[in-house]
Design brief:
Blueprint lengths: L2 H26 L16 E12 L7 E2 L10 E4 L4 E7 L5 E10 L3 E6 L4 H6 L5 E6 L6 E10 L1 H4 L10 E11 L1
Antiparallel strand pairs: 1-2, 1-3, 1-9, 3-4, 4-5, 5-6, 6-7, 7-8, 8-9
Length: 178
């Protein structure tokens, strides 16, 4: 009968070990929470666009070079240490404009979310309110994105793309840290 209390003690000990292992396993799971990611200071700086094109799936429609419509010296993405961003741009013949918002950093990407009142500004550049930029593994100074989307080219440039309001294709972005 003395072995019965010993068995109970072993059973309690094993139950406690299983509970500790289970809780530790849950803590190790990646919740996807960006707080666990790199610090925004790691990517802070001014990025210039080296590629900004929309490539329609239809071969009859020529590629749209968004950079050709912008003043290169005043078009840039600024990422700040506090996790905010400013997308400064100017269409040729237009005035300087600014879209702002916040960003989250992960080891392999940066997710931008523009302020709700800047959504129209982002759309004028063929961008959505939320943009995912991939960090280039072998050169962390470079960001890139290939975004499948349907674009309203007529809204982008009415005289040039009249009637092309729903064009599927790929938006290609490449940025380099200055």
């Amino acid at each position: 009968m003395r072995s019965l209390p010993l068995l109970r003690s072993v059973h309690r000990l094993l139950g406690g070990v299983v509970l500790v292992v289970f809780v530790a396993g849950l803590a190790a799971c990646d919740s996807g929470d960006p707080v666990d990611g790199p610090d925004p200071r790691e990517v802070a700086g001014t990025y210039r666009f080296t590629e900004f094109t929309f490539d329609p799936n239809a071969s009859a429609i020529p590629d749209v070079n968004v950079l050709d419509t912008l003043v290169a010296t005043t078009t840039q993405l600024r990422l700040f240490e506090d996790g905010s961003f400013a997308l400064e741009y100017q269409f040729r013949g237009g005035v300087q404009s600014l879209a702002s918002g916040s960003f989250r950093v992960r080891s392999d990407r940066i997710d931008l979310t523009a302020d709700a009142d800047d959504q129209a500004k982002m759309q004028s550049l063929l961008l959505d309110r939320e943009v995912r930029l991939n960090r280039v593994a072998n050169d962390r100074r470079l960001l890139e994105a290939d975004i499948s989307k349907t674009a309203n080219l007529e809204a982008f440039s009415p005289g040039r793309y009249e009637g092309l309001t729903s064009v599927p294709g790929t938006l290609r972005l490449r940025l380099s840290l200055r």
